[in-house]
Write a structure and sequence with these properties.
Blueprint (H helix, E strand, L loop, with lengths): L1 H82 L3 E5 L5 E4 L1 H7 L4 H15 L5 E11 L8 E15 L2 E11 L1 H35 L5 H33 L5 E5 H18 L4 E4 L6 E5 H17 L8 E8 L2 E7 L11
Parallel strand pairs: 7-9
Antiparallel strand pairs: 1-2, 1-5, 3-4, 4-5, 6-8, 9-10
């Protein structure tokens, strides 16, 4: 009996515990449901934030890509500016220096001749007075030997100050510095050449006119025979000058239209024929040694003939009085052709003064 009561008590206790535990489980389930609903709302909000973050990340990537492209373009621009053979200096709206290429930096250092150029640029900024473009030509004397003025070498620089603007708004300025010394030298040479060539043309024309007037109506055949070669000589001189002008014109224009397969020996023979009259007057004979077969090459026949004539003429002109002849030898050396002209003249120094 006692055992049955004990078993009943244990069963009741177990049932109580089970019911209590079941109630706890129900509360837990309700709590989980409530939590799940909250989490669902949070998940929806979280997904919206995630989309926004992805969009932001994409925008950042695009900005970074544009920055990389801009840096690459800037580097290309800087490299291009640095490779120029004239100076570039870029200034901001406040006329403060922003960038220079190496060529410009060498002048803006403010040392020696650079100080003069830097001063010239400052003067351009001060005097531009609203002008979009202002320029100046500056002569600088580079004296390697300060004690001697004769060693001074003049260099000429062309400086341009140009305003930079976008849609009418001024954003800065750019200065270009160009060394035009070579152009100035060539222009001076051109002026001298024109003056000299005018004299070279006038002299034979005047001589021909004078000789012709002398021979007009001259009955003395001996006198005619005496002056006729002089007329021929002056005519040849005039023709040679004109040929030189034509050759110079072709060289300046870089024309290769007259390049053909030519016989080198023929060019040399024509040059010898042209110089023979002058050589005989100076009691000089041009002696030649040619290979048995023709020598062909690709070139300008007129220019080569003129070049050989000039060399032969100088050989005759500058020989020692009543001494020696001019020797011209042509040899075929594998893929090369050697032309040797020798005389007993004063020669050409191997080194300049």
């Amino acid at each position: 009996m006692i055992w049955i009561l004990c078993a009943l008590a244990v069963s009741c206790a177990a049932m109580y515990v089970s019911v209590k535990q079941l109630n706890k489980q129900k509360k837990t389930i309700h709590s989980i449901d409530d939590l799940t609903k909250g989490l669902s709302q949070k998940i929806v909000q979280s997904e919206t934030v995630e989309v926004a973050l992805r969009g932001l990340a994409k925008a950042i990537d695009e900005i970074e890509e544009q920055r990389i492209k801009a840096d690459a373009f800037r580097q290309q621009l800087v490299t291009a500016l640095d490779s120029l053979n004239y100076g570039i200096a870029i200034y901001g709206q406040d006329d403060q220096l922003i960038h220079t290429n190496p060529y410009a930096s060498s002048f803006l250092s403010g040392v020696h001749s650079g100080a003069l150029i830097a001063d010239a640029i400052d003067e351009l900024f001060q005097t531009r007075d609203g002008q979009e473009v202002i320029d100046q030509e500056l002569d600088v004397f580079d004296n390697s030997h300060p004690s001697s003025v004769t060693h001074s070498r003049k260099k000429t620089f062309y400086i341009i100050l140009r305003e930079l603007s976008i849609e009418g708004n001024q954003i800065g300025s750019v200065v270009t510095i160009e060394d035009i010394s070579e152009q100035e030298r060539l222009e001076s040479v051109r002026r001298d050449f024109i003056s000299n060539i005018s004299h070279e043309l006038k002299t034979p024309i005047g001589a021909i006119a004078l000789l012709t007037e002398t021979l007009l109506g001259e009955p003395d055949t001996d006198l005619v025979q005496k002056f006729a070669p002089n007329i021929l000589q002056e005519t040849e001189r005039l023709s040679e000058t004109i040929d030189d002008l034509l050759s110079l014109s072709r060289i300046e224009h870089g024309s290769t239209d007259s390049f053909n397969q030519i016989d080198l020996l023929k060019c040399i023979e024509q040059a010898i024929d042209r110089v023979n009259t002058f050589a005989k007057q100076n009691e000089v004979t041009v002696l030649t040694s040619f290979p048995p077969a023709p020598v062909h090459l690709f070139g300008d026949e007129l220019q080569l003939t003129s070049a050989f004539y000039n060399i032969l003429e100088n050989s005759v002109k500058y020989k020692r009085i009543n001494q020696g002849n001019v020797h011209l030898t042509v040899q075929q050396l594998d893929d090369f052709i050697e032309v040797e002209i020798s005389d007993n003249g004063i020669g050409i120094p191997t080194k300049g003064p």
